[in-house]
Request: fold
Amino acid sequence: MPKLQPMPEPNVYPAYGIYLLEPKHRSIRRLKKEYQPSVHGHKTWDSSFVLMDYLQEHPIAKGARVMEVGCGWGPASIYCARRFKAKVTGVDIDPDVFPFLDVLAELNDVKVKQRVSRFEKLKGKELGGFDVLIGSDICFWDNLVKPLYRLISRALEAGTKRVIITDPGRPTFHELCELCRGKFKVELTEWYALEPARNEGEVVEITLV
Ligand SMILES: C[S@@+](CC[C@H](N)C(=O)[O-])C[C@H]1O[C@@H](n2cnc3c(N)ncnc32)[C@H](O)[C@@H]1O
Reply:
């Protein structure tokens, strides 16, 4: 995909073929007065760029059905919709993240379906309708490890083909990878992004054995 040129408008920056907004962009400042995401969904996290870089090297099929869990502002969802014309659903526990996702989706001329739910509530029947489950920086508390492990199990057992999660490399993320290793094929790799700046992290791809 050709690299995007920086936009003439201030506080807009390109990365991996999509446009993103700096915290001081007028739309973000306006939204922040009304919506305050409270479970760390208050910005675009660097692991989302690691995920974009990984997907550039290990692409998903064109038009694939993708669910992003813990999507926050949805940078990875928007990347998948833009780059792979994926049919993407972004899921988050916190409804206050979605107005930010709306602004970014509109800026990039893509649609991302939205769903408010916690990991625990997503059933196998729904999860199995997605080819790929993605997430970036979603395993940051001890009490998220088991719900995520169970979510991944439900998805793979219901027919999801690939689960791909990126992380800065937290112990809780490693714990999740170890749990999955007992039951699934787990490929854990160090990875880095180069856009919008160098960011190091890790990626795990989990599939049925
Ligand atoms: C660190 S942010 C990452 C956001 C986004 N993935 C990114 O990389 O920019 C974690 C996100 O997970 C969501 N989250 C936390 N616990 C959750 C749960 N139990 N179920 C669903 N979403 C959850 C938060 O609301 C937040 O948007």
